[in-house]
Amino acid sequence: MKIVSLLGSPRSTGNSATIANHLLKTASGLGAETQTFELNRLTYRGCQACYACKTGREDCVLNDDLTEVLAAVQDADAVVLATPVYYGDITAQLKGFIDRTFSYLVPNYLTAPQPSRLSPKKLVFVLTQGHPDEALFADVYPRYEQFLKWMGFNEITLVRACGIGPSNGNDCVPDSALQQAAEAARTLCS
To answer: Domain 2-189 adopts which CATH fold?
Structure first.
């Protein structure tokens, strides 16, 4: 089992990263091979809408720090996407990666029965937010879940923690979120 984790937070030791790293530590203990990319430490551009990946190439034409990440995700059995909620959505760092996954789509992706070049993969979506009200930003995950399933992630697990973050003085991941992450790791590795 190969698991690739993409940390979308600009804080290396932030809450979403802590949860994702706990998941990977658990999975590694179960024999999984893991790899982590901190997106904020990479230099990359967003999708250029050049359509090179649809007209003669099967990968993104841009050659930057995201090239290795896109290849690692394609090669993985499972992916962890970890992000805090910033201004009501995922971070710009993670959104930039998601935009570049356009290169995974086949040329006739709008009508193809299998629109993605990705083999079916498992996914864990780690989402944290400072506001304690779970009803707030509850729309973030469902929007990405539908899209990610279309992209080829056939089994998706959500690990969500609300009310944590430096802005509210509660920058400590609750045990319940770490337990969810450990359970997600066991599910991935089973």
So the answer is: Rossmann fold (3.40.50)
